[in-house]
Prior knowledge:
With about 120 residues, the protein is an alpha+beta fold. It has helices at about 5-20, 55-65, 100-110; strands at about 25-30, 30-35, 45-50, 75-80, 85-90.
Amino acid sequence: MGLPDDDVRRQVFLDNLVSGNVAYQPLCTGIGLCRLNASRKPGLALQIAPEALQAGQLERVLERRFAHAVVFDGCFVYLDTKGCLVIWHALAPNDQSVDDIIGRMLSLAKLETLDVYRAP
């Protein structure tokens, strides 16, 4: 599944994301991207449901986040109340492109293969 490689569907998701509308893109069973505000700050979240988590994935993500702090700057990792692993990054105008943020979050979770748009 992964991110839509269809430019129209991808653009609709990205437009909804940056405009503040509800935006959700399933990547595969139990894994998706969505708009998620932290306090008043708009952001993008990669959510991995408990049933989709691999053994030791939380520990590996946290180790990678701190071992490569500069590369993953701005990515916040936590478990939500449902036990989902969440990687969150703020959305800011004229900051990083949404594509770059998505790529970094998927890389942090070692899920790069789900970003078919960026795959060679």
